[in-house]
Amino acid sequence: MTESSAAAKNQPVILVVEDEPEERFLAATLLEETGFRVIEAETAEKALAILRERGDEVNVVFSDVRTPGQIGGFELARIIGVTWPRVHVLLTSGDAGDQPSDLRMSATFIPKPWRALDILTLVEQAAGFHTGGAAGDAH
């Protein structure tokens, strides 16, 4: 194993779930450029398929609340909480009506529009990783 592949193995893995390609690209690029490995999914169903195959690798799921298909972001967070309880979930939405009332303890809600520094700080905290790119606590 080379030094760079060993370093890559130690990087937290973030699963980005977003149906809008531009927003998914923005989030994935931000996270990759800050030192995270990123897996992308367009739907919650695809995210669950990825987790079934690679759930032991994924540290954080960053998902839009509204995703196409049968499963939305809140249901995705509930399924992850039961099946992969060590995986932290960050949910985001630009719709004020999407404010969670029963979000599980290991999930965090981030209203859109979010700031890059806020996302990096929350992902770092959730993954237990420090990239050096974000400063201070979000709380």
Automatic annotation (TrEMBL):
Annotated GO biological process: phosphorelay signal transduction system
InterPro entries assigned: Bact_response_regulator, CheY-like_superfamily, Sig_transdc_resp-reg_receiver
Residue ranges of domain Response regulatory in the record: 13-127
Regions that span the bilayer: none
Isomerase found in the keyword field: no
Residues with PTM 4-aspartylphosphate: 64
Family matches, as Pfam families: Response_reg
Cytoplasm as UniProt keyword: no
Keywords: Phosphoprotein, Transcription, Transcription regulation
Coiled coil: none
Xref: PANTHER family: RESPONSE REGULATORY DOMAIN-CONTAINING PROTEIN, STRESS RESPONSE REGULATOR PROTEIN 1
Stated name of the protein: Response regulator
